[in-house]
Queue: 3 jobs
Job 1
Amino acid sequence: MPAARPDAKRAPVLKLVATFARERAARASGLGPVAGVDEAGRGPLAGPVVAAAVALDPKRIPAGLADSKALTAVKREALFAEIMASADVAFVAASTERIERLNIRGATLWAMARAVAGLQSRPALALIDGRDVPPGLGCRGEAVIGGDATVLSIAAASIVAKVVRDRMMVRLGECVPGYGFEHHMGYGTPEHLAALSLLGPCAHHRRGFAPVSALLAQAAG
């Protein structure tokens, strides 16, 4: 194989930028208000899953909105405050018990539908991050794969859901010490798995998730 030329350049990595284009087009066609919907906490071993719905004011869109995973905690908190001050926002947490009863997908969709219903003004269109449109949404819904990185309203919802859930997990860490919830937010980190092995599952762990169910099966002998 011939060696690469010294002046050869790698193809640039395209970074997705969230825009308000999808919302603007919907509003122009008469579908307004438009809400973005996202969740935080589908993957952790413990704690709730939180869904948020955000209908941005086109004249007061906070600068710097992006997928919550691409932002620092400090930036998320700052944007959270701006979103709450300028947009129509609602969020709902599905408890561990509900996750066990409905499964994580069902609990997430339930929370998303409830968040949309909690907005002060019912949207004409909800743009939902992912592949699913929640049943019982109460308005037209469109699933947008990767929407938290491309649609501003969904990016805003991702920030709200993440900040709300992180705050809940910090509080949970204070109420149930030893597991480090305030550090790992319930995700399956080495720290969390070590505490889980030492202490066993608490009431906030998701029994249906493999590491937790394995420990329960082991304890049952």
Job 2
Amino acid sequence: MISNKIQFRVRYGETDQMSYAYHGNYAQYFEMGRIEWLRELGVSYKKMEETGIMLPVINLNINYKKPAKYDDLLTLKTTLVKTPTVKIEFEYELRNENDELLTTANITLAFVNMKTNKPTKAPEYLLNKLKKT
């Protein structure tokens, strides 16, 4: 399916006493990847929320293989697993400057109608953009 990549550095405030990226920050890294994946597709997460759709995480699985360290330049690859329905699933690979695989993850989110707080189908505009790729 469709993938994109972003790069960023581990900031000092994101590290623990060992100068490793604190494990709790990885979910935010993956969120950055997801938002940029949508943006590259031509979909704004902000506009999705403005039209009444939110995307809460319903499953998060992270496999830490090697630590990311302070000031490392990281590359995050975000890949759509399959065409979304009421859920959308992404896989992630996080690598350092030496192309070493540091972390993998799988995250599932649900499309939720903000008025009813109930699951809903993926928006047609998102599905249409996916068909064009």
Job 3
Amino acid sequence: MKISEHVHRLGNDIVASYLVVTPEGVTAVDAGLPGHRRELLAELASLGLGPADVAGVVLTHGDSDHVGFAEWLRREHGVPVYVHAADASRAKGGDKPAGLKQQMKIGAMLQFLTYFVRKGGARSAWLSEVVEVRDGDVLDLPGSPRVISVPGHSEGSVAVHVPLADAVFVGDALTTRHVLTGAEGP
């Protein structure tokens, strides 16, 4: 779905990833769930592009609902995947930090889990290789994305500023609805 001149969204308000489309190629910000690969291919095709036009994937953090099609792009098309050094292990399937207990609400949790399973989240392919980035890095990718540390959701959580698109992608660092509790607000 086209959001602006340079930004296209895959997924929905539960799990999303974004494509920054420039004349030099495409930068993906997050990779959603494995089932979003079909949406990725359809969106690229609608632009007259293909996986070879994706220059890189920048992850806002390493959770399973953000790594979706990244390993496929990396393995099958040689696309590098960038993640903050503090989340590199997490993006490779490492342990999540202890102490993340939350009061989950059954309705919100079931809505998320239904979407998660329907979009292949139960068969997420963790990354086998990543390019580690740090706060302030400007990546040599279409749109010149800048990495901004926003630890909190995870130690390596980042925002990605793309000046060309006049956009900042924040991953789960800022949300207005918690997918597991249904709580609304910042």
